[in-house]
């Protein structure tokens, strides 16, 4: 088949990427494949290469393009003068590609080509392209017995396909109709009615419509889950696409990691510790390398990167041994990315140097034992990211070579997901190293080494979460980045089916008879929240003292009887549990016994989702019942609760007590008994719960000022409570004065958080 290639770029970007594209095209593409280059902006550079198979066109001679730009010049991604540039609203930027493709389609058709292939100009060819390679990619569909009309690069988790490569069959009348529709989106200004003006978004919209009407397409990258579809394409080992962070700019890795991705926290660590000499074991496609380099440049003008990988020398045998399922990339493609990045930063007077080593890390890392060679290649890492082979042998070897580097991050520490799934033991090399060799949750080693699991939301394909391990060896690095104080994340779900909860709501509302918690104006009253941790009894006199001063004591059902037995009558008791009233609680006590004798002077704040048997029982006992609605997934589905007050706070009644009292106008909270842990190590630390799962979880909280670690034994339910409290502390705009008493996880979290109560009006005004 005969092919024509088309690209386009502004002459102003000739030195940035246009020159590299053309020179590599001349070197690696067949001489009988014509390249059409549409430049917006003339004259052409004096040193632009000339070749018999390259034609140059002035894109700005296209009247339709010029008229579109003039009509819509305000749609340039800066419609809001005071706002940031919006990539998706820049119709002016992306229209050039579409008009160039439309013009080239008819040029290629006139020249007798079977295919027109669009390539972004920020691409560099580094391996020879052959007609056979292109024929294999664009051959007849075996199932349909015909050529595709269109080929493209799909992306599952992106807003649109990758438009760096598109193949148009010029002999297909269907494709010609598609091309006319494509350009007419711009000629008619219909694009301005779409939610995105980017060319690939328009392309997808049209492609989907034409597929419904019979257009045959071929997605070269149906399994691509991220933005890098080009690298998975048939040309991926021949051309590198230099886009985004490989070409320009920098990204800051400060503030909260909203999405919980581990690579953001990886780069945050590089930036936080101001690392300059980075070693990465498992370079793969160079994406993570570029991100870490950016993070380093945020704090330094000179950065060196060393990467170790098998690259193209990897084989089926090594994949099987190291549990690898990803495509391999060539060393040359990564070199080109890093070279382009170095050139971009050079314009900012910043220096990037790099050295790539191809081979088995168990051999290549021996260079770290040779000071002379390390000096020659500037391999003096102050940071290492270990993400190479996944076999236990390789993980241990990589760590052994790198164990003295000041800051270490290891990938692939696996934890269970919500369905208790986790990768098999053979994949858990990092887990075993961290837990068995380094000491697991003992986050400070005998040698002063500090360790932390950085939890992430990143999922494993067949179940589980993948997290990072941070190891800090340098004692002069005094503070850890602000990640998660609690290293094990628990995501509780409703403990009974949603339809059961919804039935409870319907039945409870009848008993509440309109007596519900409603939002009140804030006031000066003090709420005394009493949970049932072991330290509660130690502080019983303090609770009594605060009550005598006018504070309102609010308990949970597990502290209800204890308070009354000690002469403290709770003003309120918050109840949330939808589980059977006759069943045993997680503390092994029959729930009904906890409310055996409701007090006549106590308000029982019963959530509408509570098991209706509880409400019926309290009603029968003539208790003072006040209803409230807990914010939970099952209640959001009830149309009758639309517009009703839903109270947030957490997964258990102790934290919801804070939410209830806040709704009632309280802003000052004294919290007791919220230990969320056993008193010391349980006698049977290996105990399992009713479901056969290990009951006790060993975890730790590090005081970053003193480097003192507090180790606790907790349960999943109690850990969730501690996380809810931590989330309250981290929430912006929290308008509460908090005072926390006792011992255990929550008091420790509070002490290490440096939470500051709001100043008084006079104090704030007059200093």
Helix content: 25-40%
pLDDT averaged residue by residue: 87
**What is the CA-CA span between the terminal residues?**
81 Å
Q: Quick one: how many beta strands?
A: 26
Structural class: alpha/beta
Strand content: 15-25%
Provide a count of the helices.
Answer: 24
Cα Rg: 32 Å
Based on Cα principal axes, name the global outline: globular
Give the number of domains.
3
Low-confidence stretches: 244-250, 484-495
Strand line-up across the major sheet? 22-21-20-19-18-17-23-26
Largest sheet: 8 strands, parallel
Characterization of this structure:
- This protein is of the alpha/beta class and 767 residues long.
- It folds into 3 domains: 3-241, Spore Coat Polysaccharide Biosynthesis Protein SpsA, Chain A, CATH 3.90.550; 244-472, Vaccinia Virus protein VP39 (Rossmann fold), CATH 3.40.50.150; 498-761, no CATH class.
Q: What are the salient characteristics of this protein?
A:
single chain, Spore Coat Polysaccharide Biosynthesis Protein SpsA, Chain A, eight-stranded parallel beta sheet, 24 helices
